[in-house]
Amino acid sequence: MNSNGENHEFYLKDEVYFEPLFNKWYAWPYLIPPVTAARYTEKTHLRIMKSFVNNYQLHILAAQESELSGGEFLNCTKEQVEEIRALIDRTETHYGDCVKLSKAISQLDKLLVSHTDGTSLEPLYKDVPEMLRGYVELTYDRHHRAGFRLIEPLLYNSDFYHPELQSLSFGLISKVDERPFVLSTPRLADDNHLQVAANFNHSFVDKIFKARTQPVSQAEIDEMFEGLELTGGLNYQELFTTDKPVHKSLGVKDGVQLRYLGHAGFLVQTEHVSVLIDPIIATRSTKNCDQVVSFTELPDHIDYVCLTHTHQDHVNFETLLQLRHKIGKIVVPKNNGGELQDPSLKLMLSQLGFSVIELDECEDVHVTEGVITSIPFFGEHGDLNIRSKSAWLLNIEGRKMFFGADSANPDISLYKNLKPYMENLDVYAIGMECVGAPYTWLYGALCTEKVPNSIKDTRRLNGSDADQASEVVELIKPEHIFVYALGMEPWYKYFMGIEYDENSEQVKQIERFSVAAGLWNIEVESLFGKRDLFFPKVG
Protein backbone atom coordinates (compact mmCIF):
# COMPACT_ATOMS: atom_id res chain seq x y z
CA MET A 1 0.00 0.00 0.00
CA ASN A 2 1.24 3.46 -0.82
CA SER A 3 2.39 5.28 2.28
CA ASN A 4 0.73 8.39 0.88
CA GLY A 5 -2.62 6.64 0.73
CA GLU A 6 -4.67 9.13 2.72
CA ASN A 7 -6.56 10.32 -0.37
CA HIS A 8 -7.02 6.92 -1.93
CA GLU A 9 -9.81 4.39 -1.64
CA PHE A 10 -8.85 0.87 -0.67
CA TYR A 11 -10.43 -2.58 -0.91
CA LEU A 12 -9.70 -5.87 0.80
CA LYS A 13 -7.75 -7.93 -1.72
CA ASP A 14 -9.42 -10.84 -3.51
CA GLU A 15 -6.59 -13.14 -2.43
CA VAL A 16 -7.03 -12.47 1.30
CA TYR A 17 -8.19 -15.59 3.10
CA PHE A 18 -9.64 -15.64 6.58
CA GLU A 19 -9.78 -18.29 9.26
CA PRO A 20 -11.85 -17.92 12.45
CA LEU A 21 -10.00 -19.54 15.34
CA PHE A 22 -10.91 -21.06 18.71
CA ASN A 23 -7.86 -21.39 20.94
CA LYS A 24 -5.76 -21.22 17.75
CA TRP A 25 -7.72 -24.03 16.04
CA TYR A 26 -9.93 -23.53 12.99
CA ALA A 27 -13.42 -22.82 14.32
CA TRP A 28 -15.78 -25.40 12.86
CA PRO A 29 -19.31 -25.69 14.28
CA TYR A 30 -18.59 -28.05 17.18
CA LEU A 31 -16.06 -25.58 18.62
CA ILE A 32 -18.77 -22.99 19.31
CA PRO A 33 -21.05 -24.78 21.87
CA PRO A 34 -19.27 -24.94 25.25
CA VAL A 35 -19.52 -28.69 25.91
CA THR A 36 -18.58 -29.97 22.46
CA ALA A 37 -15.76 -27.40 22.36
CA ALA A 38 -14.49 -28.84 25.64
CA ARG A 39 -14.62 -32.40 24.31
CA TYR A 40 -12.66 -31.58 21.14
CA THR A 41 -10.17 -29.50 23.10
CA GLU A 42 -9.33 -32.42 25.39
CA LYS A 43 -9.84 -35.44 23.16
CA THR A 44 -8.59 -34.09 19.82
CA HIS A 45 -6.53 -30.91 20.10
CA LEU A 46 -4.49 -31.76 23.18
CA ARG A 47 -4.00 -35.34 22.06
CA ILE A 48 -2.69 -34.37 18.59
CA MET A 49 -0.48 -31.60 19.96
CA LYS A 50 1.07 -33.87 22.60
CA SER A 51 1.70 -36.49 19.94
CA PHE A 52 3.47 -33.86 17.82
CA VAL A 53 5.68 -32.70 20.69
CA ASN A 54 6.60 -36.31 21.53
CA ASN A 55 7.35 -37.32 17.93
CA TYR A 56 7.38 -34.32 15.63
CA GLN A 57 9.50 -36.15 13.05
CA LEU A 58 6.64 -38.56 12.31
CA HIS A 59 4.13 -35.73 11.93
CA ILE A 60 6.43 -33.77 9.62
CA LEU A 61 6.94 -36.81 7.38
CA ALA A 62 3.21 -37.60 7.33
CA ALA A 63 2.31 -34.00 6.46
CA GLN A 64 4.37 -34.36 3.27
CA GLU A 65 2.19 -37.25 2.06
CA SER A 66 -0.87 -35.83 0.30
CA GLU A 67 -2.94 -38.97 0.85
CA LEU A 68 -2.59 -38.46 4.62
CA SER A 69 -3.77 -34.84 4.60
CA GLY A 70 -7.06 -35.70 6.32
CA GLY A 71 -5.34 -37.68 9.07
CA GLU A 72 -4.41 -36.65 12.59
CA PHE A 73 -0.96 -35.36 11.72
CA LEU A 74 -0.06 -31.88 12.82
CA ASN A 75 1.39 -29.87 9.94
CA CYS A 76 4.02 -27.71 11.65
CA THR A 77 7.81 -27.49 11.55
CA LYS A 78 10.53 -28.55 13.95
CA GLU A 79 11.03 -24.87 14.80
CA GLN A 80 7.42 -24.64 15.99
CA VAL A 81 7.62 -27.45 18.55
CA GLU A 82 8.04 -25.02 21.43
CA GLU A 83 5.08 -22.93 20.28
CA ILE A 84 2.94 -26.06 20.28
CA ARG A 85 4.27 -26.97 23.72
CA ALA A 86 3.32 -23.49 24.95
CA LEU A 87 -0.18 -23.85 23.48
CA ILE A 88 -0.58 -27.16 25.34
CA ASP A 89 0.49 -25.49 28.59
CA ARG A 90 -1.81 -22.50 28.07
CA THR A 91 -4.75 -24.78 27.28
CA GLU A 92 -4.24 -26.95 30.36
CA THR A 93 -3.58 -24.10 32.78
CA HIS A 94 -5.32 -20.86 31.77
CA TYR A 95 -8.24 -22.67 30.11
CA GLY A 96 -8.24 -25.76 32.27
CA ASP A 97 -11.99 -25.54 32.82
CA CYS A 98 -12.43 -26.77 29.22
CA VAL A 99 -10.56 -29.94 30.12
CA LYS A 100 -12.43 -30.29 33.42
CA LEU A 101 -15.78 -29.85 31.67
CA SER A 102 -14.87 -32.58 29.19
CA LYS A 103 -13.85 -34.93 32.00
CA ALA A 104 -17.13 -34.17 33.79
CA ILE A 105 -19.02 -35.40 30.72
CA SER A 106 -17.03 -38.66 30.85
CA GLN A 107 -17.86 -39.03 34.54
CA LEU A 108 -21.55 -38.38 33.92
CA ASP A 109 -21.64 -40.95 31.11
CA LYS A 110 -19.99 -43.52 33.38
CA LEU A 111 -22.54 -42.83 36.10
CA LEU A 112 -25.49 -43.27 33.76
CA VAL A 113 -24.16 -46.29 31.87
CA SER A 114 -23.82 -48.12 35.20
CA HIS A 115 -27.44 -47.39 36.11
CA THR A 116 -29.14 -50.32 34.41
CA ASP A 117 -32.08 -51.26 36.64
CA GLY A 118 -34.53 -48.75 35.12
CA THR A 119 -35.46 -47.23 38.46
CA SER A 120 -35.92 -43.50 38.99
CA LEU A 121 -33.00 -41.26 38.06
CA GLU A 122 -33.83 -38.59 40.63
CA PRO A 123 -31.46 -40.01 43.30
CA LEU A 124 -28.57 -39.68 40.82
CA TYR A 125 -28.75 -35.89 40.60
CA LYS A 126 -26.62 -35.60 43.75
CA ASP A 127 -23.90 -37.61 41.98
CA VAL A 128 -23.80 -35.46 38.86
CA PRO A 129 -20.36 -33.78 38.62
CA GLU A 130 -20.57 -30.42 40.34
CA MET A 131 -19.73 -28.30 37.31
CA LEU A 132 -22.57 -29.90 35.31
CA ARG A 133 -25.27 -29.58 37.96
CA GLY A 134 -28.09 -27.36 36.79
CA TYR A 135 -26.98 -27.70 33.18
CA VAL A 136 -28.21 -31.26 32.52
CA GLU A 137 -31.44 -33.18 32.83
CA LEU A 138 -31.20 -36.93 33.42
CA THR A 139 -33.47 -38.94 31.15
CA TYR A 140 -34.41 -42.43 30.00
CA ASP A 141 -35.08 -43.53 26.46
CA ARG A 142 -37.99 -45.89 25.79
CA HIS A 143 -35.77 -48.90 26.48
CA HIS A 144 -34.84 -47.71 29.99
CA ARG A 145 -31.32 -46.66 29.00
CA ALA A 146 -30.17 -43.68 31.05
CA GLY A 147 -28.85 -40.55 29.37
CA PHE A 148 -28.87 -36.78 29.67
CA ARG A 149 -29.72 -33.67 27.79
CA LEU A 150 -27.88 -30.37 27.98
CA ILE A 151 -29.63 -27.09 28.74
CA GLU A 152 -27.78 -25.31 25.94
CA PRO A 153 -28.98 -21.70 26.47
CA LEU A 154 -27.73 -21.77 30.07
CA LEU A 155 -24.36 -23.10 28.98
CA TYR A 156 -23.92 -20.22 26.51
CA ASN A 157 -24.67 -17.84 29.38
CA SER A 158 -22.21 -19.56 31.71
CA ASP A 159 -18.48 -19.18 32.32
CA PHE A 160 -17.97 -22.25 30.13
CA TYR A 161 -18.58 -20.19 26.99
CA HIS A 162 -15.26 -18.61 26.04
CA PRO A 163 -15.51 -15.89 23.36
CA GLU A 164 -12.11 -14.68 24.57
CA LEU A 165 -10.63 -17.83 23.00
CA GLN A 166 -11.91 -16.71 19.61
CA SER A 167 -9.54 -14.88 17.28
CA LEU A 168 -9.09 -14.07 13.61
CA SER A 169 -6.35 -15.10 11.20
CA PHE A 170 -5.61 -13.50 7.82
CA GLY A 171 -3.30 -14.61 5.04
CA LEU A 172 -2.55 -14.06 1.36
CA ILE A 173 -2.86 -17.03 -0.98
CA SER A 174 0.23 -15.85 -2.89
CA LYS A 175 2.36 -16.31 0.24
CA VAL A 176 1.50 -19.95 0.98
CA ASP A 177 1.64 -23.16 -1.04
CA GLU A 178 -1.49 -24.58 0.55
CA ARG A 179 -3.44 -24.25 3.77
CA PRO A 180 -2.96 -27.10 6.31
CA PHE A 181 -5.90 -29.40 7.01
CA VAL A 182 -8.16 -27.58 9.45
CA LEU A 183 -9.04 -30.43 11.84
CA SER A 184 -5.47 -31.47 12.66
CA THR A 185 -3.30 -28.35 12.79
CA PRO A 186 -3.57 -25.25 15.00
CA ARG A 187 -2.90 -21.90 13.36
CA LEU A 188 0.24 -20.21 14.69
CA ALA A 189 1.13 -16.57 14.10
CA ASP A 190 3.94 -17.12 11.60
CA ASP A 191 5.57 -14.77 9.09
CA ASN A 192 2.85 -15.30 6.46
CA HIS A 193 -0.15 -14.54 8.64
CA LEU A 194 -1.72 -11.81 10.71
CA GLN A 195 -3.70 -12.82 13.76
CA VAL A 196 -6.11 -10.40 15.41
CA ALA A 197 -7.19 -10.86 19.03
CA ALA A 198 -10.89 -10.16 18.50
CA ASN A 199 -13.90 -12.41 19.00
CA PHE A 200 -16.32 -13.24 16.21
CA ASN A 201 -18.85 -10.60 17.34
CA HIS A 202 -16.34 -7.73 17.34
CA SER A 203 -17.37 -4.84 15.07
CA PHE A 204 -14.00 -5.25 13.32
CA VAL A 205 -15.26 -8.41 11.59
CA ASP A 206 -18.09 -6.80 9.63
CA LYS A 207 -16.07 -3.66 8.92
CA ILE A 208 -13.13 -5.44 7.29
CA PHE A 209 -15.25 -7.75 5.15
CA LYS A 210 -17.46 -4.93 3.89
CA ALA A 211 -14.22 -3.60 2.41
CA ARG A 212 -14.25 -6.37 -0.18
CA THR A 213 -16.81 -4.32 -2.11
CA GLN A 214 -17.12 -1.01 -0.22
CA PRO A 215 -14.04 1.25 -0.35
CA VAL A 216 -12.36 2.52 2.81
CA SER A 217 -9.82 5.24 3.43
CA GLN A 218 -6.41 4.85 5.00
CA ALA A 219 -7.73 6.48 8.15
CA GLU A 220 -10.60 3.99 8.31
CA ILE A 221 -8.20 1.08 7.90
CA ASP A 222 -5.99 2.37 10.71
CA GLU A 223 -9.05 2.90 12.89
CA MET A 224 -10.20 -0.70 12.25
CA PHE A 225 -6.99 -2.12 13.68
CA GLU A 226 -6.44 0.49 16.38
CA GLY A 227 -6.27 -0.98 19.88
CA LEU A 228 -6.35 -4.60 18.71
CA GLU A 229 -3.56 -7.00 19.61
CA LEU A 230 -1.87 -8.10 16.38
CA THR A 231 0.61 -10.96 16.00
CA GLY A 232 2.36 -12.56 13.05
CA GLY A 233 4.64 -11.23 10.33
CA LEU A 234 2.00 -10.08 7.84
CA ASN A 235 1.41 -6.32 8.01
CA TYR A 236 -2.24 -5.34 7.82
CA GLN A 237 -1.41 -2.84 5.10
CA GLU A 238 -0.68 -5.80 2.80
CA LEU A 239 -4.32 -6.94 2.98
CA PHE A 240 -5.56 -3.93 1.00
CA THR A 241 -5.28 -2.62 -2.56
CA THR A 242 -6.37 0.45 -4.47
CA ASP A 243 -7.56 -1.78 -7.33
CA LYS A 244 -11.32 -1.86 -7.57
CA PRO A 245 -12.98 -5.30 -7.68
CA VAL A 246 -13.03 -6.65 -11.22
CA HIS A 247 -15.56 -9.41 -10.62
CA LYS A 248 -18.94 -8.04 -9.56
CA SER A 249 -22.49 -9.21 -9.03
CA LEU A 250 -24.48 -8.80 -12.24
CA GLY A 251 -27.92 -9.20 -10.72
CA VAL A 252 -30.97 -10.83 -12.32
CA LYS A 253 -33.65 -8.92 -14.19
CA ASP A 254 -36.08 -11.72 -15.00
CA GLY A 255 -36.48 -15.44 -14.32
CA VAL A 256 -34.41 -17.58 -11.96
CA GLN A 257 -30.60 -17.75 -12.02
CA LEU A 258 -28.98 -20.84 -10.51
CA ARG A 259 -25.26 -20.44 -9.85
CA TYR A 260 -23.02 -23.21 -8.55
CA LEU A 261 -20.43 -21.72 -6.17
CA GLY A 262 -18.16 -24.70 -5.57
CA HIS A 263 -18.31 -27.75 -3.29
CA ALA A 264 -21.83 -27.69 -1.73
CA GLY A 265 -22.70 -24.08 -2.48
CA PHE A 266 -25.45 -22.70 -4.70
CA LEU A 267 -26.94 -19.25 -5.23
CA VAL A 268 -30.56 -19.05 -6.37
CA GLN A 269 -31.40 -15.52 -7.43
CA THR A 270 -34.30 -13.62 -8.97
CA GLU A 271 -34.96 -9.92 -9.32
CA HIS A 272 -36.66 -9.99 -5.91
CA VAL A 273 -34.90 -12.60 -3.75
CA SER A 274 -31.54 -14.29 -3.30
CA VAL A 275 -30.94 -17.60 -1.49
CA LEU A 276 -27.61 -19.22 -0.69
CA ILE A 277 -27.31 -22.95 0.01
CA ASP A 278 -24.34 -24.19 2.13
CA PRO A 279 -21.95 -21.46 0.97
CA ILE A 280 -18.19 -21.98 1.12
CA ILE A 281 -16.86 -19.14 -0.97
CA ALA A 282 -13.42 -19.72 -2.43
CA THR A 283 -10.60 -17.22 -2.16
CA ARG A 284 -9.60 -16.13 -5.64
CA SER A 285 -5.96 -16.73 -6.56
CA THR A 286 -3.89 -16.68 -9.74
CA LYS A 287 -4.38 -20.46 -9.99
CA ASN A 288 -8.19 -20.48 -9.85
CA CYS A 289 -9.19 -16.93 -10.84
CA ASP A 290 -11.39 -18.05 -13.74
CA GLN A 291 -12.82 -21.11 -11.98
CA VAL A 292 -14.39 -19.64 -8.85
CA VAL A 293 -17.21 -17.37 -7.79
CA SER A 294 -15.76 -15.25 -5.03
CA PHE A 295 -17.12 -12.76 -2.53
CA THR A 296 -17.30 -9.71 -4.79
CA GLU A 297 -19.64 -11.54 -7.18
CA LEU A 298 -22.36 -12.16 -4.60
CA PRO A 299 -25.43 -9.91 -4.29
CA ASP A 300 -25.21 -6.84 -2.07
CA HIS A 301 -27.92 -8.37 0.09
CA ILE A 302 -28.58 -12.07 0.61
CA ASP A 303 -32.11 -12.64 1.81
CA TYR A 304 -31.73 -16.24 3.00
CA VAL A 305 -28.94 -18.73 3.66
CA CYS A 306 -30.07 -22.37 3.96
CA LEU A 307 -27.74 -24.75 5.81
CA THR A 308 -28.15 -28.51 5.43
CA HIS A 309 -26.19 -29.98 8.35
CA THR A 310 -23.59 -29.22 10.99
CA HIS A 311 -20.43 -30.43 9.25
CA GLN A 312 -17.55 -28.03 8.61
CA ASP A 313 -17.99 -28.15 4.83
CA HIS A 314 -21.65 -27.10 5.05
CA VAL A 315 -21.82 -24.77 8.05
CA ASN A 316 -18.66 -22.85 7.32
CA PHE A 317 -17.96 -19.93 9.63
CA GLU A 318 -15.04 -18.84 7.49
CA THR A 319 -17.62 -17.87 4.86
CA LEU A 320 -20.60 -17.01 7.05
CA LEU A 321 -18.73 -14.44 9.13
CA GLN A 322 -17.49 -12.73 5.98
CA LEU A 323 -21.07 -12.48 4.72
CA ARG A 324 -22.79 -11.65 8.01
CA HIS A 325 -23.12 -7.94 7.20
CA LYS A 326 -25.23 -8.73 4.11
CA ILE A 327 -27.27 -11.76 5.27
CA GLY A 328 -30.94 -11.31 6.11
CA LYS A 329 -31.94 -14.67 7.62
CA ILE A 330 -30.24 -18.04 8.04
CA VAL A 331 -32.58 -21.03 7.76
CA VAL A 332 -31.54 -24.15 9.67
CA PRO A 333 -32.99 -27.55 10.60
CA LYS A 334 -34.31 -28.12 14.10
CA ASN A 335 -32.16 -30.17 16.47
CA ASN A 336 -33.00 -32.81 19.09
CA GLY A 337 -32.88 -30.36 21.99
CA GLY A 338 -29.81 -30.94 24.13
CA GLU A 339 -28.18 -34.08 22.71
CA LEU A 340 -24.39 -33.81 22.98
CA GLN A 341 -23.85 -34.91 19.38
CA ASP A 342 -26.57 -32.60 18.03
CA PRO A 343 -26.02 -29.01 19.20
CA SER A 344 -28.57 -26.39 18.20
CA LEU A 345 -27.66 -24.54 15.01
CA LYS A 346 -30.14 -21.84 15.94
CA LEU A 347 -28.45 -21.14 19.28
CA MET A 348 -24.98 -21.40 17.76
CA LEU A 349 -25.65 -18.90 14.97
CA SER A 350 -27.72 -16.57 17.15
CA GLN A 351 -24.76 -16.39 19.53
CA LEU A 352 -22.71 -15.07 16.61
CA GLY A 353 -25.12 -12.31 15.67
CA PHE A 354 -27.14 -13.98 12.91
CA SER A 355 -30.92 -13.83 12.60
CA VAL A 356 -32.07 -17.45 12.43
CA ILE A 357 -35.19 -19.29 11.32
CA GLU A 358 -35.43 -22.89 12.55
CA LEU A 359 -37.59 -25.30 10.56
CA ASP A 360 -38.86 -28.74 11.44
CA GLU A 361 -39.12 -31.38 8.72
CA CYS A 362 -41.49 -30.45 5.89
CA GLU A 363 -42.02 -26.95 7.26
CA ASP A 364 -41.95 -23.91 4.98
CA VAL A 365 -40.70 -20.36 4.97
CA HIS A 366 -42.37 -18.13 2.40
CA VAL A 367 -40.22 -15.82 0.30
CA THR A 368 -41.03 -13.35 -2.48
CA GLU A 369 -42.82 -15.35 -5.20
CA GLY A 370 -41.83 -18.65 -3.63
CA VAL A 371 -41.29 -20.98 -0.72
CA ILE A 372 -38.40 -22.82 0.93
CA THR A 373 -39.25 -26.26 2.35
CA SER A 374 -37.23 -28.43 4.73
CA ILE A 375 -36.96 -32.00 3.41
CA PRO A 376 -36.01 -34.96 5.67
CA PHE A 377 -32.33 -35.96 5.40
CA PHE A 378 -31.27 -39.57 6.05
CA GLY A 379 -27.72 -40.85 6.43
CA GLU A 380 -24.15 -39.44 6.48
CA HIS A 381 -24.02 -39.21 10.29
CA GLY A 382 -22.97 -42.73 11.26
CA ASP A 383 -26.47 -43.58 12.56
CA LEU A 384 -26.10 -41.11 15.42
CA ASN A 385 -29.35 -39.59 16.62
CA ILE A 386 -28.78 -36.23 14.94
CA ARG A 387 -31.87 -34.38 13.84
CA SER A 388 -30.34 -31.09 12.71
CA LYS A 389 -29.96 -32.10 9.08
CA SER A 390 -32.18 -31.14 6.18
CA ALA A 391 -32.23 -31.12 2.42
CA TRP A 392 -33.81 -28.01 0.91
CA LEU A 393 -36.52 -27.66 -1.69
CA LEU A 394 -36.88 -24.24 -3.32
CA ASN A 395 -39.96 -23.38 -5.36
CA ILE A 396 -39.40 -19.86 -6.70
CA GLU A 397 -41.22 -18.23 -9.61
CA GLY A 398 -42.55 -21.66 -10.58
CA ARG A 399 -39.12 -23.32 -10.64
CA LYS A 400 -38.49 -26.25 -8.26
CA MET A 401 -34.98 -27.16 -7.16
CA PHE A 402 -33.89 -29.84 -4.66
CA PHE A 403 -30.54 -29.59 -2.88
CA GLY A 404 -29.80 -32.87 -1.10
CA ALA A 405 -26.14 -32.35 -0.14
CA ASP A 406 -24.86 -35.54 1.52
CA SER A 407 -28.25 -37.11 2.18
CA ALA A 408 -28.55 -40.82 1.49
CA ASN A 409 -31.47 -43.02 0.43
CA PRO A 410 -31.34 -46.20 2.54
CA ASP A 411 -35.10 -46.66 2.07
CA ILE A 412 -36.88 -45.38 -1.04
CA SER A 413 -40.10 -45.35 0.98
CA LEU A 414 -39.13 -41.91 2.27
CA TYR A 415 -39.04 -40.46 -1.23
CA LYS A 416 -42.25 -42.23 -2.18
CA ASN A 417 -43.87 -40.36 0.70
CA LEU A 418 -42.14 -37.15 -0.40
CA LYS A 419 -43.17 -37.50 -4.04
CA PRO A 420 -45.92 -34.84 -3.79
CA TYR A 421 -43.21 -32.36 -2.76
CA MET A 422 -40.72 -33.38 -5.42
CA GLU A 423 -42.79 -33.80 -8.56
CA ASN A 424 -41.89 -31.63 -11.56
CA LEU A 425 -38.39 -30.84 -10.32
CA ASP A 426 -36.27 -28.60 -12.51
CA VAL A 427 -33.12 -29.49 -10.56
CA TYR A 428 -32.15 -32.51 -8.49
CA ALA A 429 -28.72 -31.87 -6.89
CA ILE A 430 -27.21 -34.68 -4.82
CA GLY A 431 -23.83 -35.54 -3.34
CA MET A 432 -22.17 -38.89 -3.90
CA GLU A 433 -19.85 -39.26 -0.92
CA CYS A 434 -20.55 -43.00 -0.86
CA VAL A 435 -17.30 -43.98 0.89
CA GLY A 436 -17.28 -41.75 3.95
CA ALA A 437 -14.90 -42.00 6.86
CA PRO A 438 -15.83 -43.96 10.00
CA TYR A 439 -18.13 -41.77 12.08
CA THR A 440 -15.48 -41.54 14.79
CA TRP A 441 -13.28 -39.53 12.40
CA LEU A 442 -15.58 -36.58 13.10
CA TYR A 443 -17.46 -37.55 16.25
CA GLY A 444 -14.88 -39.62 18.11
CA ALA A 445 -14.18 -36.87 20.64
CA LEU A 446 -17.78 -37.10 21.83
CA CYS A 447 -17.44 -40.80 22.68
CA THR A 448 -16.47 -41.47 26.29
CA GLU A 449 -15.58 -45.12 25.73
CA LYS A 450 -13.42 -46.75 23.06
CA VAL A 451 -15.45 -47.67 19.98
CA PRO A 452 -14.70 -51.18 18.66
CA ASN A 453 -13.47 -51.46 15.07
CA SER A 454 -16.44 -53.70 14.29
CA ILE A 455 -18.68 -50.70 14.93
CA LYS A 456 -16.50 -48.05 13.32
CA ASP A 457 -16.07 -50.04 10.13
CA THR A 458 -19.80 -50.27 9.47
CA ARG A 459 -21.00 -46.88 10.73
CA ARG A 460 -19.56 -44.42 8.27
CA LEU A 461 -20.25 -40.89 7.06
CA ASN A 462 -21.77 -42.17 3.82
CA GLY A 463 -24.01 -40.24 1.50
CA SER A 464 -25.77 -41.56 -1.61
CA ASP A 465 -24.29 -44.02 -4.07
CA ALA A 466 -25.37 -44.54 -7.67
CA ASP A 467 -28.08 -47.07 -6.87
CA GLN A 468 -29.65 -44.94 -4.14
CA ALA A 469 -29.67 -41.80 -6.28
CA SER A 470 -31.00 -43.74 -9.29
CA GLU A 471 -33.98 -44.97 -7.29
CA VAL A 472 -34.94 -41.38 -6.51
CA VAL A 473 -34.47 -40.28 -10.12
CA GLU A 474 -36.62 -43.14 -11.40
CA LEU A 475 -39.36 -42.00 -9.03
CA ILE A 476 -39.34 -38.24 -9.70
CA LYS A 477 -37.78 -37.83 -13.19
CA PRO A 478 -36.17 -34.38 -12.70
CA GLU A 479 -35.28 -32.14 -15.64
CA HIS A 480 -31.64 -31.60 -14.59
CA ILE A 481 -29.36 -33.69 -12.35
CA PHE A 482 -26.24 -32.30 -10.70
CA VAL A 483 -23.73 -34.24 -8.60
CA TYR A 484 -21.89 -31.99 -6.19
CA ALA A 485 -20.56 -31.58 -2.60
CA LEU A 486 -17.59 -33.93 -3.06
CA GLY A 487 -14.82 -31.39 -2.59
CA MET A 488 -13.52 -32.04 -6.10
CA GLU A 489 -12.04 -28.55 -6.30
CA PRO A 490 -8.41 -28.63 -5.11
CA TRP A 491 -8.69 -25.25 -3.39
CA TYR A 492 -11.01 -26.87 -0.82
CA LYS A 493 -8.55 -29.56 0.22
CA TYR A 494 -7.69 -27.67 3.43
CA PHE A 495 -11.07 -28.55 4.96
CA MET A 496 -11.97 -31.69 2.95
CA GLY A 497 -8.64 -33.49 3.38
CA ILE A 498 -9.22 -35.72 0.32
CA GLU A 499 -8.23 -36.00 -3.31
CA TYR A 500 -9.89 -37.96 -6.11
CA ASP A 501 -8.71 -39.66 -9.28
CA GLU A 502 -10.36 -41.83 -11.92
CA ASN A 503 -10.03 -44.89 -9.66
CA SER A 504 -11.82 -43.30 -6.70
CA GLU A 505 -15.05 -45.11 -5.87
CA GLN A 506 -16.96 -41.83 -5.81
CA VAL A 507 -15.93 -41.13 -9.41
CA LYS A 508 -16.94 -44.63 -10.48
CA GLN A 509 -20.32 -44.21 -8.78
CA ILE A 510 -20.93 -40.95 -10.65
CA GLU A 511 -20.27 -42.79 -13.91
CA ARG A 512 -22.72 -45.55 -12.92
CA PHE A 513 -25.30 -42.95 -11.96
CA SER A 514 -24.89 -41.25 -15.34
CA VAL A 515 -25.52 -44.52 -17.16
CA ALA A 516 -28.61 -45.24 -15.05
CA ALA A 517 -30.08 -41.77 -15.54
CA GLY A 518 -29.48 -42.10 -19.27
CA LEU A 519 -32.17 -44.79 -19.32
CA TRP A 520 -34.66 -41.98 -18.69
CA ASN A 521 -32.85 -39.61 -21.08
CA ILE A 522 -31.62 -37.39 -18.25
CA GLU A 523 -28.03 -36.15 -18.29
CA VAL A 524 -26.00 -36.19 -15.07
CA GLU A 525 -23.54 -33.33 -14.72
CA SER A 526 -20.75 -33.50 -12.15
CA LEU A 527 -20.17 -29.94 -11.00
CA PHE A 528 -16.74 -28.37 -10.57
CA GLY A 529 -15.72 -24.81 -9.80
CA LYS A 530 -18.65 -22.75 -11.07
CA ARG A 531 -21.68 -23.21 -13.29
CA ASP A 532 -24.59 -20.94 -14.28
CA LEU A 533 -28.04 -22.03 -15.37
CA PHE A 534 -30.96 -19.75 -16.21
CA PHE A 535 -34.66 -20.63 -15.98
CA PRO A 536 -37.38 -18.38 -17.40
CA LYS A 537 -40.16 -17.55 -14.97
CA VAL A 538 -43.15 -19.90 -15.17
CA GLY A 539 -46.51 -18.20 -15.58
What is this structure's SSE topology?
Layout: E1 11-12, E2 16-22, E3 25-26, H1 34-54, H2 56-63, H3 81-93, H4 96-113, E4 136-140, E5 146-150, H5 152-156, E6 166-172, E7 193-196, H6 203-210, H7 218-225, E8 230-231, E9 240-241, E10 256-262, E11 265-269, E12 274-277, E13 302-306, H8 317-323, E14 327-333, H9 345-351, E15 356-359, E16 364-367, E17 370-376, E18 390-396, E19 399-403, H10 413-422, E20 427-431, H11 440-443, H12 453-456, H13 466-476, E21 480-484, H14 493-496, H15 505-518, E22 524-526, E23 531-535
Parallel strand pairs: 12-13, 13-14, 14-15, 19-20, 20-21, 21-22
Antiparallel strand pairs: 1-9, 2-3, 2-6, 4-5, 6-7, 7-8, 10-11, 10-23, 11-12, 16-17, 17-18, 18-19
Helix pairs in contact: 1-2, 1-3, 1-4, 3-4, 13-15
- Categorize the overall geometry: globular
Strand content: 15-25%
Number of strands: 23
Mean pLDDT: 95
- The number of helical segments is 15
Any idea what the radius of gyration is?
24 Å
Q: Which strands sit side by side, in order, in the main sheet? A: 15-14-13-12-11-10-23
Helix content: 25-40%
Strand-pairing-aware structural class: alpha/beta
Distance between the termini: 52 Å
In terms of per-residue confidence, which ranges show pLDDT below 50 for 5 or more consecutive residues? none
Main sheet? 7 strands, mixed
